[in-house]
Amino acid sequence: MKLQILKCKKCDTFTLEKTCPKCNEKAENPKPAKYSETDKLSKYRNLARKSN
Ligand SMILES: [Zn+2]
Description:
Blueprint: E1 6-8, E2 14-15, E3 27-28, H1 37-51
Antiparallel strand pairs: 1-2, 1-3
C-alpha cells in the first residue's frame, strides 16, 4: 500500500491525511480519474449553468 498525497480543495494544502490539517476540510486526490462520477456530474452542472 503506497502513500496517497491528497490536496485540500479549500486551501490547496497537500496532506497524507484524509482531512486537511489546516481547515479540517476533506482532502481529495489532486489527480482525479478522468471519467469519475463527480466529473460527469460537474460537467452537467456546468452545462445547466450555461443554459440558464
Ligand atoms: Zn484546507
